[in-house]
Amino acid sequence: MIRILLADDQRLVRAGIRSILEDEDDFEVVGEAADGQAAVSACRALQPDVVLMDIRMPGTDGLEAARVIAADERLATVKVVMLTTFDLDDHVYGALRAGATGFLVKDTEPAELLHAVRVAVRGDALISPSITRRLIAEFASMQKNSAKADARLDALTGREREVMRLVAAGCTNDEIAARLVLSPLTAKTHVSRIMAKLGARDRSQVVVLAYEYGMVSPGWLTE
Predict the structure, then answer these.
(1) Are 197 and 149 in contact (CB under 8 A)?
(2) Is 181 helix (H, G, I), strand (E, B) or coil?
(3) Of 75, 148, 186, 218, which has fewest CB within 10 angstroms of its CB?
């Protein structure tokens, strides 16, 4: 059973999302919160698998709540998927850096929402199709003091760098395995080692770091 917490300041929005989720046999909505501070408290009390978090809420917003959750070792297994009204929200990059697993726009189709929850539980990066890798790259390039290659990157093997670039391109473990002629289990092992060496919470942070380090550029996989 996948345990889910809903965090949104609009009760009607929470009710609508709850109704979609509770139609699934493997989902359980364990709680709701109307602001970021309440969401953090609920996470600590309920230990959900996934938090669907509105980015804009009164008081402590979703972005700050995501930072707190990501920094709390007691909540290391909690995945945060941010919900936003606008797909060009300038908080996308900051939220991914803060530790959010991914982003969805609120007008996403129910099937995509359900898929997002399952993807988040697996620890995969999830970004709504309308929030493209181009946008992540754009915000990464706007950082005046962009991250430079450091000891963590130096620790990666050549194969791990290849895998990291494919993760940044949005490839699944199976797709990485097919491209590099590996078994899916080996691809998964490489991804896990990359995350450990980089100190990344999940694949989304690997994506952001790949752009920051200049390892990939938008559309490189299809060039």
Answers:
(1) no
(2) coil
(3) 148
Does this model's pTM top 0.85?
Answer: no
Amino acid identity for residue 6 in this structure: L
Hey, which residues does 33 pair with through a beta bridge? Answer: 7
Nearest to 31 by CA among 51, 9, 16: 51
Please name which of 157, 162, 159, 170 lies closest in space to residue 204, comparing C-alpha atoms: 170
Per the CB < 8 A criterion, the answer to whether 99 and 206 are in contact is no
Contact of 141 with 93, CB cutoff 8 Å: no
Using DSSP, state whether 62 is helix, strand or coil.
helix
pLDDT digits over 56-95, tens only? 898 998 989 998 998 898 998 999 998 887 655 556 666 7
Helix (H) or strand (E) segment spanning residue 7: strand 2-7
Closest CA to 75 of 5, 127, 126: 5
Residues 106, 130 contacting (CB under 8 angstroms):
no
Taking the C-alpha atoms of residue 102 and residue 107, their distance in angstroms, rounded to an integer, is 15
Q: How far apart are CA 10 and CA 117, in angstroms?
A: 20
